[in-house]
Amino acid sequence: MKKEYWFIILTYIVMQLSGILGIPLLLRMGIGEGESQRMAQITASGYWTVASFAAAFAIVLFLLRKHFKSNEFRGDAAPVSTSVLWAVGGVFMALFVQVIAANIEIQVFGIEGESENTKVIMEVLQVTPLLILVTSIIGPILEEIIFRKILFGVLYQRINFFLSALISSLVFALVHGEPQHVLLYGSMGFVFAFLYVKTKRILVPIFAHVAMNTFVVILQTNREQLEEMLKQAEQMQFIFGGM
């Protein structure tokens, strides 16, 4: 594996663990002062997440500057027009497998409720709106570079697609800190790995991942309004149906 890849992985690990020291540091500096302990913790967590992800993103792009367009697989990359179609289609594929995986978790394994990770993120977003740049753009780009371009790409050079996608998707799922939702995150990992192999362009799964996360964030932040609209639609349907 290229030495730059090792530095990128190390940067990502340090970023993930940096909050252990960074968040208490921000609290000592007065971030969240005057708020309750829990709100201060959330505020500091939001600011540190934005800062650490932005720093890691800059470092990763610098380390990858000579390799971003490199093709990890044999053969030429798909034409731009084909790649655009796969990128757009990939968004729907990722959302589709999420729905299937979520239903399997509920119906087969009895795992109910939405992702705790998503709940926490939405709570922090209310305090630190700038976090949307991390959840919708920076985070997905870093994850595709780490788990698809590097981890999956290196494995796929040595073993078949299924095992490469399985290993990289499993690691991708576990990094989110919710082992009970390994099927949910893992299924998305398979879709993004497929898009990468199909087009041989890392920008394709990056676009699909960014678009999917952005859609989910928008859906979650406007959840109350959407529920109200659905209720109003049901009431209208009842009124017209009773005429």
Tell me what you see in this structure.
- With 243 residues, this protein is mainly alpha-helical.
- It has one domain (3-241).
- The chain has ten helices and no strands.
- The chain is globular.
Structural class of the helices, strands and pairings?
A: mainly alpha
Large-scale geometry:
globular
> How do the helices and strands follow one another from N- to C-terminus?
HHHHHHHHHH
| Unreliable stretches | 232-243
SS summary, helix count: 10
Radius of gyration: 20 Å
The figure for the number of domains is 1
Helix content: over 70%
| End-to-end distance | 70 Å
Overall pLDDT score: 85
Please report which band the strand proportion falls in: under 5%, 5-15%, 15-25%, 25-35%, 35-45% or over 45%.
under 5%
Quick structural summary:
The chain has 243 residues and is mostly helical.
List keywords for this structure.
243 residues; mainly alpha; 10 helices
Secondary-structure blueprint:
Blueprint: H1 3-17, H2 19-28, H3 37-63, H4 80-107, H5 116-127, H6 132-156, H7 161-175, H8 182-199, H9 203-221, H10 223-241
